[in-house]
């Protein structure tokens, strides 16, 4: 027990020290990427704490608010996607509210920011699925933020990925699944171009494994099992903690699909 307490104390002290020495959100961003790769809830929470502390010294930093919004967006997704045994409506709603408030501040500081609008459209879209009343209330906000996102970021891979995710979530027919596949393939093509560009610690690079996983699901739904396996495998290679892709590959193996 004493080791755990000491370890926790040292971790907290390290976070406080790094945040105080780093005016830009670099360390918080690096921790986010590590958490995203492994889909690690604890490290994602630590990244949020670091970014919050960074913003205390630079409350008007758009970059700080953007990255805090990205982290809170993914914390909500992680909680919302857990299985029903661990799912907490109250916790999920709190994370949703925090993500929305943060991204609202991001677009207030930089109104045309396409990725923040795309994340807001996604958050409101998820609430639309709860009931018809929610859809009536939040639907116009989905449309508003999606229009701004596409107007300012049609060639942004994260905008296309989240648009494809929305198409997939609402798909009801073969043509809907095909449309979702097209959007997600477009996102993957843009991610491929982005991957060849020089890296920058502050430049967004998140989203590709999630887009590949959803593309795999769209292909699987259409019966293109071998193609689905290829996308799932690629997603898992980029994000070893992607349990959704791992479970999908196991499911395809049961169908005797060859896994790349």
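-> sequence recovered:
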């Amino acid at each position: 027990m004493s080791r755990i307490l000491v370890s926790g104390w040292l971790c907290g002290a390290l976070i406080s020290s790094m945040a105080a020495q780093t005016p830009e959100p670099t360390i918080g961003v690096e921790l986010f990427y590590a958490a995203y790769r492994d889909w690690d809830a604890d490290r994602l929470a630590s990244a949020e704490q670091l970014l919050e502390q960074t913003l205390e010294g630079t409350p008007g930093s758009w970059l700080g608010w953007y990255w805090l919004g990205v982290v809170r967006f993914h914390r909500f997704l992680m909680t919302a996607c857990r299985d029903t045994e661990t799912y907490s409506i109250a916790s999920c709603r709190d994370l949703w509210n925090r993500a929305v408030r943060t991204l609202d501040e991001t677009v207030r500081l930089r109104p045309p920011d396409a990725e923040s609008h795309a994340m807001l459209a996604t958050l409101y879209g998820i609430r639309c699925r709860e009931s018809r009343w929610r859809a009536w209330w939040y639907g116009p906000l989905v449309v508003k933020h999606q229009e701004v996102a596409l107007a300012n970021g049609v060639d942004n891979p994260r905008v296309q990925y989240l648009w494809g995710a929305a198409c997939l979530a609402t798909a009801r027919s073969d043509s809907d699944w095909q449309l979702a596949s097209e959007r997600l393939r477009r996102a993957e093509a843009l991610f491929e171009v982005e991957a060849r560009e020089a890296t920058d610690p502050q430049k967004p690079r998140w989203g590709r494994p999630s887009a590949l996983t959803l593309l795999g699901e769209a292909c699987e739904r259409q019966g293109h099992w071998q193609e689905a396996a290829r996308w799932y495998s690629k997603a898992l290679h980029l994000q070893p903690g992607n349990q959704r892709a791992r479970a999908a590959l196991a499911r395809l193996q049961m169908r005797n699909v060859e896994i790349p």
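The first helix runs from residue 2 to 21.
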